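The data are quoted verbatim here:
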Amino acid sequence: MRRKIGKSEFCQDYLLEKGSPQLKIKSLVNWQERHTLVKAAFPINVEADFVSYEILCGVIQRTTKPQTGREKAKWEVPALRWADISQDNYGVSLLNDCKYGYDAKPDEIRLTLLRGATWPKKEADVGIHEFTYAIYPHVGSWENAGTVQRGYELNMPLFVQVMPPLISQEKSSEKLPQVYRFLGWEVENLILMAFKRSEDNQDWVLRCYECLGKLAELELKSDAGLKIRETVDLLERGIADSLESKSCQISPWKVVSFLWN
C-alpha cells in the first residue's frame, strides 16, 4: 500500500504469516513534513478503563477516561515494545520495534510514528525511515497471552545461522543431539536481559527480570555445564553466598544478576 501525506510518501506491507496471530505492518517512509504528527490508530472491539504499557523491566497503567487536569496532560505515554487494552476474556496488543509514544481511548489505541519537529535541529526527522508495528489480538489478559515475549520477538527475531562442520562426515559417525541447551529455563515470566563476560573477564554474567508481577522459580538448565556461582548486583559485586542449588526464587518485577562459570 502506498499513500501520501503532504510531501511525504508511505510504502507499507501488511503481513499475515502462516500460523501467526499477528498482523504486521512493515513501513518504509520518505518523511518531509514540518510541524506534523503522524499516528497509526486502531479502533478495536474492546472497551477498557485502563491501558497497560511496557516500561523498563515493568508495566504501568494509564486511564482511558481522564478526569483531572493531571490525567488529561498524560495523553501521550512513553513506553517500550508494546501497549495493551484487555478485558477479562479478550484483548489487543499493539507491538512495535522502534516507536515509543502511545495514547488510547476506551476503544482505540494509537502509536506515534513520525513528527515534523524543527527544534533543536531544523531537519531532525527528515529522510528515510523504516519500522514495523503489529496488531496482536489475544484471548485473556496480556499476561496470559505472552505479549511480553511477542514484543521481544518483533524486536529481536530468531536468527538462524548454518555453521560449517568441524569434522567431516566421513571421519565421524556422531550425531548432534535433538535438543541442546546452552542456557535455558522453563518458567515463562523471566526475561533474559544480558549474558556477557564479567568486567574482570573471569566469569560469565547472566541478568534477567520477572515480567508479569508474580513470583518466579528460576531453575537453570545448561547442557554446556554452566553453573551459578553467586548472586551479584548491577556492578557485579557479590551480594549472596554461593548457591548450592540450581534453583532460586525471584520476586515480582525484580532484576537479578548471577555469576556463572
Summary: Residues 147-155 form the longest helix (9 residues).
